Amino acid sequence: MSTKVSDHILARLRDWGVEHVFAYAGDGINGLLAAWERADNTPRFIQARHEEMAAFQAVGYAKFSGRVGVCAATSGPGAIHLLNGLYDAKLDHVPVVAIVGQTNRSAMGGSYQQEVDLLSLYKDVASDFLEMVTVPEQLPNAIDRAIRTAYGRRTVTAVIVPADVQELDYSPPTHDFKMVPSSLGLASYAPVPTEDDLARAAEVLNAGEKVAVLIGQGARGARAEVEQLADVLGAGVAKALLGKDALPDDLPYVTGAIGLLGTRPSYEMMRYCDTLLVVGSSFPYTQFMPELDQARAVQIDIDPHMVGMRYPFEVNLVGDAKATLQRLLPQLEPKKHGNWRKKIEKDTARWWEVMERRAAVEADPVNPEYVIHALDALLPDDVILAADSGSSANWYARHLRIRGTMRGSLSGTLATMGPGVPYVIGAKFAHPDRPAIALVGDGAMQMNGMAELITAGKYWSEWQDPRLIVAVLNNQDLNQVTWEMRAMSGAPQFLPSQALPDVRYADFARSIGLDGVRVEKPGEVVDAWRTALAADRPFVIDFRTDPAVPPIPPHAGLDQIEAAATALIKGDSDRVAVVKQGLKAKVQEMLPGGKHRHGRPDRD
Ligand SMILES: Cc1ncc(C[n+]2csc(CCOP(=O)(O)OP(=O)(O)O)c2C)c(N)n1
Ligand SMILES: [Mg+2]
Question: Domain Thiamine pyrophosphate enzyme central, which positions (predicted)?
Fold first, then answer.
């Protein structure tokens, strides 16, 4: 039997070690589907409910495995559906390859059914490598470069394969003119800056007295070096959201998240430092960094395309975080751990007390901060966490303390709704032996999560550890946006856009063979988490949470609180509850480390 182009594509993916392709069928990839059948489904075809979810699963897989995520879709609508997930990968710098079909070559340019101009449509999302295969000899190069570029530039690449090309007999490139033979693999590499540049960076860091470090996901492989550096320099370390799992939160000088969803100690450290070191982060919000003339600053980033932005850095080191820090550390002069470091540790300890008290504030019916705070104490050390975009991202950022080998992620830069459930499904294919938890708003659950529960239902029985927990913060509101409207524009809540129907998420889970429970009282929260963590299958907890609990920013600007008050005066539907809740939470934050004004809300 001859090898067709489609057989060759799957074989090449196998050669690259690709084990899963997150995908959805359509006649634009019928040739590939037939090849999958011939190849005994290797690499494994993982069927999502929607191509965007297939892309999110590929992103989750890539984020939690460090390996390339591969997704596939048919021409036209399938390719269009993939896009949002692919942008999520591109903006968060994770390697994802998309393989998409196209109409037959004979129909191209004929406004044919399902023909869209994919080269134009994908030009931006796959700007580093996008190719349409029109003759067999373009392979394996097109696949090899797509995978190598995705890895090397930590981005999205795409290969378009017209349906009729998939059916051609494969013939490899030859030694002739205008042929492009190709090879497999990409050796690992760790670029380092020159000695001169390292010395310049060391001079800046040695001169400072109050050093603040900001790390992102690029520092994940350099945990020991960052710890050593913080010790040598007497520094504190704040974490961008994507770097939340780069360093444990049980170190006393780790101030936690930074930014609008961040912590007050991170905010304060940036306000008062005289020196800033950024490692592996493109954290975008300059207003949470030191004033532009406040600190001398050094950045380390592996990507020359990304380095030097966001702050007037004096030294922009291009290099792998671990290898660069290993070379920098011997040049650093140890600083005494004086008032600076003491203040950071004190502020951080106080922050965690404040979080405890915020979680203990009574709410109607359940305080979402309590839901996530209660989870913190129960998290398995090897858990994989995903938060969706919405208020759950606030509580993920603030209440969960990373420790052990925990991993966590969210849509950091695109901040799209909907990846929570598909991310953890992707994670389960990368790590079937680890528990995974998604924190998802009811809006995101209705948008994508419910459909993807069906995908979890299809595959969970083969996972070594079947625990995949989906916690829905059911506040019947697009709450994050409601709060943004209140805080930023002073607009009252616009119910036609914000209110969501109540849905019985746990009942739905049970109806498809999963398990679940609805929680309507604070006293049921801990039990529900425990039951989910002991479950023998994916489990949905439908937490009925209070939309009136405000995600107040770390600096709690009075102007924002005032704007919220204005909205209330203009007639916000939630007004009484919000005033009460907002003030209560604020008062808790202000308390000087003193008494708990309320007992834990799980008393009833
Ligand atoms: C695809 C997409 N659509 C819209 C938004 C804007 N947005 C951000 S958060 C949010 C509300 C999310 O509501 P929900 O999932 O219920 O979470 P909650 O904030 O209520 O906890 C919206 C509409 C977005 N980020 N992504
Ligand atoms: Mg909601």
Answer: 198-328
Ligand minimally distant from the alpha carbon of residue 474 = 2
Q: Do domains 5-166 and 361-590 have the same CATH topology?
A: yes
Say if residue 522 is preceded by a cis peptide, omega within 30 of 0: no
Rounded Cα–Cα distance for residues 147 and 245 (Å) = 26
CATH superfamily of 5-166: Thiamin diphosphate (ThDP)-binding fold, Pyr/PP domains (3.40.50.970)
CATH number of 195-345: 3.40.50.1220
Atom index in ligand 1 nearest the CA of residue 415 equals 25
Assess whether pLDDT exceeds 50 at residue 602: no
- Tell me the H-state helices in 515-601: 525-533, 558-569, 575-590
Architecture of domain 361-590: 3-Layer(aba) Sandwich (3.40)
pLDDT per residue as tens digits for the range 240-292: 999 999 999 999 999 999 998 999 999 999 999 999 999 999 999 999 999 99
**DSSP string covering 4-24:** BHHHHHHHHHHHTT--EEEE-
Q: In angstroms, what is the span from residue 213 Cα to ligand 1's centroid?
A: 31
* Residue 390 alpha carbon, nearest atom of ligand 1: 19
For the chain, what are the domain ranges? 5-166, 195-345, 361-590
pTM: 0.95
Q: Are 83 and 112 in contact (CB under 8 A)?
A: no
SS3 content of the chain, % helix, strand, coil (to 5): 45, 15, 40
pLDDT of 516 strictly over 90? yes
Question: Residues lining ligand 2 (ion), CB within 5 A?
Answer: 441-443, 475, 477, 479
